[in-house]
């Protein structure tokens, strides 16, 4: 019985590790959705904006797992926005920019994704050398509720300028490029205007990238194959070991059950003597007595 219990333990440990393995495999393929992030920022801005004054930038506090992400919001009258622009966060929106559709007031939600940038935005064959920053406009005519629809901006004069907080260039010979991330996952490239400044004609999310050298890419590809293969191989082995262990435990259980059956069978074995049925065991007990008598 002890060995059965032990194999039971082994099986449960193996099953547990198999589950752990599959959950790990799942979490590594987890995808980060920029759209849901925007919606999260919008709802936090909506909650805080009603308590705040028009014309001032306010920081928004996010859930604790977004500590390195910075989000702020400002509400501006449309007339003021047209006449003076908006100079907040990393964005310098000049005069003569129109927000459509027309609303009495607009709210601009700014964000800096910090070290989560590359989790939400990637550029094929390039690496980010600056955090992803963005701004999105919403209708703020109603002082107590932000509109659902994003506003679109049209630049009549100078472009909107983005000053990136820091650009980390590992290779000084490589020219960095500005990128704008489209809503459908598209990427638009443009030249850097000054060392850390990009220009744009509209709202969205932006960063600076550097072309990644191809050999490193190939190595990564190769590594992924190896990791996938080794992972799959161990998964298969684990599966087989669990299968064999379960089979062995089942077989042992069956053998013990069969042994129990045969023991019971012996106890209740019967003999037919004439027409009456006698338990065999009683015969066995009486026999030595008879033998003894015979000898005496
Ligand atoms: C908002 O947060 C940034 C970065 O953490 C900080 O530099 C700035 O002073 C804050 N602004 C306000 C109004 O709290
Ligand atoms: C933070 O936690 C929320 C749930 O509490 C989750 O939806 C979100 O994806 C998490 N964010 C990160 C960056 O892990
Ligand atoms: C915008 O703000 C920056 C600093 O935050 C300042 O250097 C710059 O002169 C301002 N530009 C305008 C047009 O107000
Ligand atoms: C981002 O930085 C914070 C604090 O430095 C750290 O706790 C967090 O794990 C980092 N997140 C990622 C995805 O690197
Ligand atoms: C990335 O680079 C590889 C080869 O280095 C090329 O085959 C692929 O088309 C590139 N992808 C994009 C989106 O440019
Ligand atoms: C403003 O929003 C609040 C909350 O959603 C709503 O109760 C109110 O009717 C809205 N006011 C106007 C003028 O639409
Ligand atoms: C903002 O909050 C109000 C309630 O306070 C709600 O009616 C409205 O739908 C919210 N808007 C967004 C865009 O979440
Ligand atoms: C970007 O810069 C390259 C040279 O560095 C130039 O050939 C190209 O025309 C520029 N593109 C734009 C849109 O200015």
Structure explained in plain terms:
This protein has six helices and 16 strands. The longest helix is centred in the C-terminal third of the chain and has 54 residues, at 214-267. Strands 1, 2, 5, 6, 7, 8, 9, 11, 12 and 14 form a ten-stranded antiparallel β-sheet that branches. Strands 3-4-10-13 form a four-stranded antiparallel β-sheet, with no helix packed on it. A two-stranded antiparallel ribbon has the order 15-16. Strand 15 and strand 16 (276-279) form a beta hairpin. The model is unreliable at 22-30, 266-272 and 278-292 (pLDDT under 50). The two termini are 47 Å apart. By secondary structure, the protein is of the alpha+beta class. One 2-acetamido-2-deoxy-beta-D-glucopyranose binds at residues 142, 144-145.
Itemize the secondary structure elements and their pairings:
Layout: H1 2-27, H2 34-49, E1 58-60, E2 70-77, H3 78-84, E3 86-88, E4 91-93, E5 97-100, E6 105-112, H4 117-120, E7 126-128, E8 133-139, E9 150-155, E10 160-163, E11 177-181, E12 187-191, E13 197-200, E14 204-211, H5 214-267, E15 270-273, E16 276-279, H6 280-295
Antiparallel strand pairs: 1-2, 2-6, 3-4, 4-10, 5-9, 6-8, 7-14, 8-9, 8-14, 10-13, 11-12, 11-14, 15-16
Helix pairs in contact: 1-5
Bound molecules: 2-acetamido-2-deoxy-beta-D-glucopyranose (8 copies).
